[in-house]
Protein backbone atom coordinates (compact mmCIF):
# COMPACT_ATOMS: atom_id res chain seq x y z
CA UNK A 1 0.00 0.00 0.00
CA UNK A 2 1.58 3.29 -1.07
CA UNK A 3 2.26 5.94 1.55
CA UNK A 4 0.28 9.12 0.96
CA UNK A 5 2.03 12.51 1.19
CA UNK A 6 0.10 13.36 4.37
CA UNK A 7 1.07 10.07 5.97
CA UNK A 8 4.68 10.63 4.94
CA UNK A 9 4.69 14.09 6.55
CA UNK A 10 3.24 12.61 9.73
CA UNK A 11 5.95 9.95 9.85
CA UNK A 12 8.69 12.52 9.27
CA UNK A 13 7.25 14.75 12.00
CA UNK A 14 7.02 11.79 14.41
CA UNK A 15 10.62 10.81 13.65
CA UNK A 16 11.82 14.36 14.33
CA UNK A 17 9.82 14.73 17.53
CA UNK A 18 10.56 11.25 18.92
CA UNK A 19 14.10 11.95 20.25
CA UNK A 20 12.99 15.07 22.12
CA UNK A 21 9.88 13.29 23.38
CA UNK A 22 11.95 10.34 24.62
CA UNK A 23 14.41 12.69 26.30
CA UNK A 24 11.61 14.56 28.11
CA UNK A 25 9.93 11.31 29.15
CA UNK A 26 13.12 9.80 30.59
CA UNK A 27 14.53 12.89 32.27
CA UNK A 28 11.34 14.81 33.16
CA UNK A 29 8.27 12.60 33.32
CA UNK A 30 9.86 9.54 34.97
CA UNK A 31 11.63 11.54 37.74
CA UNK A 32 8.43 13.42 38.45
CA UNK A 33 6.51 10.14 38.65
CA UNK A 34 9.12 8.87 41.11
CA UNK A 35 8.66 12.00 43.23
CA UNK A 36 4.89 11.48 43.24
CA UNK A 37 5.36 7.90 44.44
CA UNK A 38 7.86 8.98 47.11
CA UNK A 39 5.54 11.75 48.33
CA UNK A 40 2.98 9.17 49.48
CA UNK A 41 5.60 7.09 51.28
CA UNK A 42 7.26 7.27 54.68
CA UNK A 43 10.77 8.04 55.85
CA UNK A 44 12.75 4.89 56.48
CA UNK A 45 14.30 4.53 59.96
CA UNK A 46 17.79 5.09 58.53
CA UNK A 47 16.57 7.80 56.17
CA UNK A 48 15.39 7.71 52.58
CA UNK A 49 12.15 6.16 51.34
CA UNK A 50 9.96 3.44 52.73
CA UNK A 51 7.01 2.15 50.74
CA UNK A 52 3.62 3.21 52.10
CA UNK A 53 0.47 5.07 51.08
CA UNK A 54 -0.19 8.03 53.32
CA UNK A 55 -1.04 11.71 53.00
CA UNK A 56 0.95 12.56 56.12
CA UNK A 57 3.72 14.27 54.10
CA UNK A 58 1.26 16.67 52.48
CA UNK A 59 -0.44 17.26 55.83
CA UNK A 60 2.99 18.27 57.18
CA UNK A 61 3.49 20.99 54.54
CA UNK A 62 2.55 23.82 56.97
CA UNK A 63 5.75 23.06 58.90
CA UNK A 64 7.62 24.57 55.95
CA UNK A 65 5.24 27.50 55.60
CA UNK A 66 8.06 30.02 56.11
CA UNK A 67 9.95 28.68 53.07
CA UNK A 68 6.78 28.78 50.96
CA UNK A 69 5.94 32.27 52.19
CA UNK A 70 9.42 33.65 51.48
CA UNK A 71 9.44 32.10 48.02
CA UNK A 72 5.95 33.25 47.07
CA UNK A 73 6.65 36.78 48.28
CA UNK A 74 10.24 37.38 47.16
CA UNK A 75 10.06 35.57 43.80
CA UNK A 76 7.32 37.83 42.31
CA UNK A 77 8.98 40.93 43.80
CA UNK A 78 12.30 39.87 42.28
CA UNK A 79 10.64 39.29 38.90
CA UNK A 80 8.99 42.73 39.08
CA UNK A 81 12.31 44.43 39.92
CA UNK A 82 13.94 42.57 37.02
CA UNK A 83 11.18 43.91 34.76
CA UNK A 84 11.66 47.50 35.97
CA UNK A 85 15.38 47.33 35.20
CA UNK A 86 15.14 45.20 32.06
CA UNK A 87 12.49 47.10 30.10
CA UNK A 88 14.47 50.36 29.64
CA UNK A 89 17.54 48.34 28.67
CA UNK A 90 15.60 46.24 26.15
CA UNK A 91 13.87 49.35 24.80
CA UNK A 92 17.18 51.11 24.25
CA UNK A 93 18.71 48.06 22.57
CA UNK A 94 15.75 47.44 20.25
CA UNK A 95 14.56 50.98 19.45
CA UNK A 96 17.16 53.60 20.28
CA UNK A 97 20.55 51.95 19.78
CA UNK A 98 22.58 52.21 16.59
CA UNK A 99 21.90 49.06 14.48
CA UNK A 100 25.62 48.92 13.70
CA UNK A 101 26.46 48.27 17.36
CA UNK A 102 23.27 46.49 18.40
CA UNK A 103 24.70 42.98 18.15
CA UNK A 104 27.65 43.97 20.34
CA UNK A 105 25.35 45.51 22.95
CA UNK A 106 23.11 42.45 23.01
CA UNK A 107 26.19 40.27 23.40
CA UNK A 108 27.21 42.30 26.45
CA UNK A 109 23.86 41.45 28.04
CA UNK A 110 24.55 37.74 27.56
CA UNK A 111 28.22 37.86 28.66
CA UNK A 112 27.44 37.40 32.41
CA UNK A 113 25.98 33.98 31.57
CA UNK A 114 29.47 32.92 30.51
CA UNK A 115 30.54 33.06 34.15
CA UNK A 116 29.19 30.69 36.79
CA UNK A 117 26.35 32.08 38.91
CA UNK A 118 28.22 30.77 41.93
CA UNK A 119 31.26 32.94 41.17
CA UNK A 120 29.12 36.01 40.51
CA UNK A 121 27.16 35.49 43.73
CA UNK A 122 30.37 35.14 45.73
CA UNK A 123 31.48 38.46 44.25
CA UNK A 124 28.31 40.07 45.62
CA UNK A 125 29.00 38.48 49.00
CA UNK A 126 32.27 40.41 49.11
CA UNK A 127 30.67 43.64 47.82
CA UNK A 128 27.85 43.52 50.39
CA UNK A 129 29.97 42.07 53.19
CA UNK A 130 31.77 43.92 55.95
CA UNK A 131 34.82 44.63 53.76
CA UNK A 132 32.72 45.97 50.88
CA UNK A 133 30.09 48.71 50.81
CA UNK A 134 29.58 48.79 54.63
CA UNK A 135 33.32 49.42 55.04
CA UNK A 136 33.17 52.33 52.58
CA UNK A 137 30.13 53.75 54.35
CA UNK A 138 31.97 53.46 57.68
CA UNK A 139 34.77 55.63 56.29
CA UNK A 140 32.33 58.49 55.80
CA UNK A 141 30.72 58.11 59.20
CA UNK A 142 27.82 55.77 58.46
CA UNK A 143 28.34 52.91 60.89
CA UNK A 144 26.69 49.55 61.54
CA UNK A 145 25.20 49.09 58.08
CA UNK A 146 24.35 45.47 57.36
CA UNK A 147 23.61 44.56 53.76
CA UNK A 148 24.52 40.89 53.59
CA UNK A 149 22.16 38.20 54.91
CA UNK A 150 19.06 40.33 54.32
CA UNK A 151 16.08 40.08 51.96
CA UNK A 152 17.44 43.14 50.15
CA UNK A 153 20.69 41.32 49.39
CA UNK A 154 18.72 38.35 48.04
CA UNK A 155 16.64 40.64 45.82
CA UNK A 156 19.78 42.34 44.54
CA UNK A 157 21.31 38.97 43.69
CA UNK A 158 18.11 37.90 41.96
CA UNK A 159 17.99 41.02 39.80
CA UNK A 160 21.66 40.69 38.89
CA UNK A 161 21.46 36.96 38.17
CA UNK A 162 18.20 36.85 36.24
CA UNK A 163 18.26 40.19 34.44
CA UNK A 164 19.39 38.76 31.05
CA UNK A 165 16.50 36.29 31.10
CA UNK A 166 14.12 39.24 31.41
CA UNK A 167 15.85 41.47 28.87
CA UNK A 168 15.98 39.03 25.96
CA UNK A 169 12.23 38.22 25.58
CA UNK A 170 11.35 41.91 25.84
CA UNK A 171 14.08 42.81 23.36
CA UNK A 172 12.75 40.25 20.86
CA UNK A 173 9.22 41.71 21.12
CA UNK A 174 10.46 45.28 20.73
CA UNK A 175 12.86 44.39 17.92
CA UNK A 176 9.91 43.04 15.89
CA UNK A 177 7.97 46.28 16.45
CA UNK A 178 6.88 47.93 13.19
CA UNK A 179 8.58 51.33 13.24
CA UNK A 180 5.94 52.71 10.87
CA UNK A 181 3.44 52.57 13.72
CA UNK A 182 5.65 54.84 15.80
CA UNK A 183 6.15 57.21 12.87
CA UNK A 184 2.42 57.31 12.20
CA UNK A 185 1.73 58.08 15.84
CA UNK A 186 4.21 60.96 15.75
CA UNK A 187 2.75 62.27 12.48
CA UNK A 188 -0.70 62.31 14.05
CA UNK A 189 0.60 64.52 16.85
CA UNK A 190 0.88 62.00 19.66
CA UNK A 191 3.43 62.76 22.34
CA UNK A 192 6.21 60.21 22.97
CA UNK A 193 4.62 59.16 26.25
CA UNK A 194 1.27 58.55 24.54
CA UNK A 195 2.99 56.60 21.79
CA UNK A 196 4.78 54.44 24.31
CA UNK A 197 1.69 53.57 26.35
CA UNK A 198 -0.59 53.34 23.33
CA UNK A 199 1.60 51.37 20.92
CA UNK A 200 5.00 50.26 22.21
CA UNK A 201 3.97 48.82 25.57
CA UNK A 202 0.88 46.89 24.34
CA UNK A 203 2.82 45.35 21.46
CA UNK A 204 5.66 44.31 23.77
CA UNK A 205 3.41 42.71 26.39
CA UNK A 206 3.95 39.16 25.06
CA UNK A 207 7.68 39.57 25.67
CA UNK A 208 7.02 41.11 29.08
CA UNK A 209 4.79 38.22 30.13
CA UNK A 210 7.31 35.72 28.79
CA UNK A 211 10.12 37.28 30.80
CA UNK A 212 8.05 37.59 33.98
CA UNK A 213 6.82 33.98 33.75
CA UNK A 214 10.29 32.65 32.96
CA UNK A 215 12.02 34.49 35.82
CA UNK A 216 9.25 33.79 38.34
CA UNK A 217 9.18 30.07 37.57
CA UNK A 218 12.94 29.75 37.91
CA UNK A 219 12.92 31.75 41.15
CA UNK A 220 10.39 29.39 42.69
CA UNK A 221 13.10 26.75 42.76
CA UNK A 222 16.06 29.05 43.50
CA UNK A 223 18.56 27.78 46.06
CA UNK A 224 21.99 29.34 45.56
CA UNK A 225 21.21 33.07 45.90
CA UNK A 226 19.20 32.88 49.17
CA UNK A 227 21.75 30.42 50.58
CA UNK A 228 24.74 32.68 49.96
CA UNK A 229 23.28 36.19 50.15
CA UNK A 230 20.57 35.35 52.66
CA UNK A 231 22.89 33.48 55.00
CA UNK A 232 20.21 31.00 56.02
CA UNK A 233 17.95 33.81 57.23
CA UNK A 234 16.03 34.02 53.94
CA UNK A 235 14.84 30.47 53.38
CA UNK A 236 13.41 29.43 50.00
CA UNK A 237 11.69 26.19 48.97
CA UNK A 238 14.89 25.18 47.20
CA UNK A 239 16.78 25.45 50.49
CA UNK A 240 14.13 23.33 52.21
CA UNK A 241 14.48 20.63 49.53
CA UNK A 242 18.26 20.50 49.89
CA UNK A 243 17.90 20.19 53.66
CA UNK A 244 15.31 17.42 53.43
CA UNK A 245 17.04 15.33 50.77
CA UNK A 246 20.69 15.75 51.82
CA UNK A 247 20.63 16.55 55.54
CA UNK A 248 17.62 14.94 57.23
CA UNK A 249 17.19 12.42 54.37
CA UNK A 250 13.42 12.71 54.57
CA UNK A 251 12.80 11.88 50.92
CA UNK A 252 8.99 11.49 51.14
CA UNK A 253 8.51 14.92 52.74
CA UNK A 254 10.95 16.49 50.29
CA UNK A 255 9.10 14.84 47.41
CA UNK A 256 5.78 16.18 48.71
CA UNK A 257 7.23 19.70 48.76
CA UNK A 258 8.70 19.21 45.27
CA UNK A 259 5.38 17.96 43.87
CA UNK A 260 3.59 20.91 45.45
CA UNK A 261 6.15 23.25 43.92
CA UNK A 262 5.61 21.74 40.46
CA UNK A 263 1.85 22.20 40.84
CA UNK A 264 2.41 25.85 41.80
CA UNK A 265 4.68 26.35 38.77
CA UNK A 266 2.05 24.87 36.44
CA UNK A 267 -0.60 27.15 37.95
CA UNK A 268 1.65 30.21 37.59
CA UNK A 269 2.43 29.32 33.99
CA UNK A 270 -1.24 28.74 33.14
CA UNK A 271 -2.33 32.02 34.72
CA UNK A 272 0.49 33.92 33.00
CA UNK A 273 -0.44 32.46 29.61
CA UNK A 274 -4.10 33.33 30.17
CA UNK A 275 -3.29 36.91 31.19
CA UNK A 276 -0.85 37.32 28.32
CA UNK A 277 -3.40 36.07 25.82
CA UNK A 278 -6.06 38.46 27.11
CA UNK A 279 -3.86 41.55 27.21
CA UNK A 280 -2.30 40.85 23.81
CA UNK A 281 -5.56 40.14 22.00
CA UNK A 282 -5.19 37.76 19.08
CA UNK A 283 -1.41 38.05 18.92
CA UNK A 284 0.43 34.81 19.59
CA UNK A 285 2.05 34.53 23.01
CA UNK A 286 4.78 31.96 23.66
CA UNK A 287 5.88 31.54 27.26
CA UNK A 288 7.93 28.38 26.80
From TrEMBL:
Keyword Transmembrane helix: yes
Pfam families, sorted: BPD_transp_1
Subcellular location: Cell membrane
Xref: SUPFAM superfamilies: MetI-like
Keyword Chaperone recorded: no
Membrane topology: Multi-pass membrane protein
Membrane-traversing stretches: 12-40, 67-91, 103-127, 153-174, 195-219, 253-277
UniProt-recorded name of the protein: ABC transporter permease
Organism per entry: Pararhizobium polonicum
Record lineage: Bacteria, Pseudomonadati, Pseudomonadota, Alphaproteobacteria, Hyphomicrobiales
